[in-house]
Every structure is written in C-alpha cells, then in structure tokens.
C-alpha cells in the first residue's frame, strides 16, 4: 500500500468513527468527505478489510439508497438497536437517518 492509499484509508476509518449512533452515511458520502468523491467502492473495500481487533462502526455505512450490505444480517440488528429508521427490511430511511457532517 502506498503512502497516499494508507492516508486515504486512515481518513475513511476516522470519518466512519465519527458517525454517531442512530445515524448512517453512504459510501459515497464518506469518499467525498475523505477527499476522493469518485471512490465509493474503495471505501467499501477499506471497510471490508478493516482490522477486526479495532472496532469501527462499519455497520453505519450503507449505499446511497440506504441498502444494507447483502448477507450481513447483523447490520440491520445493530442499526435498529441504535434507533435508525428503516423504510423496509433492506433499506435505511436515508432522509431521516443520514448523518449530516
């Protein structure tokens, strides 16, 4: 990993750590706030490979439409426990729950 890639990954993880309980952010929103607005998928890869020994609230990051990560059933449970509003079983109500950074 280059120094630039490591710095971007560190910014992403820092931003994810700032998302308060009860709120969510989109991958694109995190990419934009980290200075690389066209790298939403890279944000997903960074979160997917974040060290498990260090806790980041990755469950608070969803797609721009509010869709949850497919196959990660625990994500909905974690978000519901924090009071995040849902519009259906697979989508967060983004207008009500999106973090305004």
Overview of this structure, please?
Strands 1-2 form a two-stranded parallel sheet. A two-stranded antiparallel ribbon has the order 3-4. The chain has helices spanning 3-18, 27-33, 40-48, 73-81, 94-97; strands spanning 25-26, 61-62, 86-88, 91-92. A hairpin with a 2-residue loop joins strand 3 (86-88) and strand 4 (91-92). The mean pLDDT is 94. The chain contains five helices and four strands; from the N terminus they run αβααβαββα. The protein is mostly helical. The N and C termini lie far apart (28 Å). The chain has a single domain (3-97), classed as Arc Repressor Mutant, subunit A (Orthogonal Bundle), CATH 1.10.10.10. It is globular and about 40 Å long. The relative contact order is 0.20. The longest helix is centred in the first third of the chain and has 16 residues, at 3-18. 45% of the residues lie in helices and 9% in strands.
